[in-house]
Amino acid sequence: MNERNFGEVILDLKGISLSFGAMRVLNNISFNVRQGEIRSIIGPNGAGKSSMLNVINGVYHPQEGEITFRGEVRKEMKVHEAAGFGIARTFQNIALFKGMSTLDNIMTGRNLKMKSSMLAQAIYWGKAQKEEIEHRKKVEEIIDFLEIQAIRKTPVGRLPYGMQKRVELGRALAAEPEILLLDEPMAGMNVEEKEDMSRFVLDINDEFGTTIVLIEHDMGVVMDISDRVVVLDYGRQLADGTPDVVRSNQDVIDAYLGVSH
Ligand SMILES: Nc1ncnc2c1ncn2[C@@H]1O[C@H](COP(=O)(O)OP(=O)(O)O)[C@@H](O)[C@H]1O
Ligand SMILES: [Mg+2]
């Protein structure tokens, strides 16, 4: 994996600091993301990993630092900007509409792509209908890709946890993202489900060229599928580099990997 060649830096985070009141959650964090890579963020619970994703997709606004996306420097990302730039995300705690079917949940991921307003739909019914058909087609492609045809009509609240995670991935994919932020997509999964999810992450990266920023606790998975890994430890940045570099970093071993991992 480490031999792969990457494109340019598309996202560059420099000196990011984020506080909530007196609590500093991110302290001078700097790393970049290159086009087409699988970039992981690891660290213990409370390290600031999810907060970092929230900075990237504009939910949190850092007090210090700079975010450069495709050459444009900004102090903070805005939620609508991030979405418009093609940054999509899944959440640590599944955020799906439990009463809605798999199909309809994935369809909600198309919202940003739907051009016709309600008024336009009323006036230009034929055009809106054509658009709807195109959206459905895209959603069906994602359902095939993720091999979830059998559960397309099932309300997601009735699905096992691992399947819900897969549906959430489908919803993020429906936005046809350039950068996909995955917050612990394998948490709570058994070995087989983790293998499936790892394969989907690799296939998304490979087949669609999607750049992936991944938060994951399973070190086997992280070291296996990541091109580069940044390590956070209670707001501090401990290390940044290839899996080999990070794995052999003494600070990382002492603070995080230890002997039990
Ligand atoms: N909106 C918020 N308000 C206050 N504290 C927050 C908020 N979001 C995160 N935190 C705090 O920031 C720290 C890092 O959290 P988080 O980014 O979720 O860590 P991780 O994902 O690495 O487990 C935690 O102490 C958490 O309680
Ligand atoms: Mg988290």
TrEMBL record:
PROSITE patterns tied to this protein: ABC_TRANSPORTER_2 (PS50893)
GO cellular component, one term: plasma membrane
Record-annotated ABC transporter domain positions: 11-259
InterPro entries: AAA+_ATPase, ABC_AA/LPS_Transport, ABC_transporter-like_ATP-bd, BCA_ABC_TP_C, P-loop_NTPase
SMART domains per the UniProt record, alphabetical: AAA
Sorted UniProt keywords: ATP-binding, Nucleotide-binding, Transport
Pfam families reported in the protein's UniProt record: ABC_tran, BCA_ABC_TP_C
GO molecular function: ATP binding; ATP hydrolysis activity
Protein name: ABC transporter ATP-binding protein
Organism: Sedimenticola selenatireducens
